[in-house]
Specification:
Number of strands: 17
Structural class: mainly beta
Distance between the termini: 31 Å
Oligomer: single chain
Radius of gyration: 14 Å
Shape: globular
Strand order of the largest sheet: 3-6-11-14-16-17
Order of helices and strands: EEEEEEEEHEEEEEEEEE
Number of helices: 1
Length: 121
Amino acid sequence: MIRPPFHCDYGFNIMLSANVFLNFNCVILDVVEVTIDDKTQIGPGVQILTADHPRDAAKRASGLEFGRPIRIGRNVWIGGGAIILPGVTIGDNAVIGAGSVVTRDVPPGVTAFGNPARIRA
């Protein structure tokens, strides 16, 4: 289920498995593949961003863009307003706190939150 409004770059690089839920105002920049597995719930205003740019200013000014795929596992819960950055994998049964910025992979079964998101007990 996808609650509108929903925004994406292309749409054809987004792979949703069964019973995925995206709440209002989700943004997926799918320059490359975004995979979201079964029973994952994504809160309102979440941004899933595969698009990336060179760190070198001259290359960036040339308009060069590339992407790094994102994979979100089964039964993941991503709180409202979270941002998932390019190249991140979130493991099955993980929880991402509201407003978190996920800059690195999150292992299965853990809770991560903050900016940048860190694994918490």
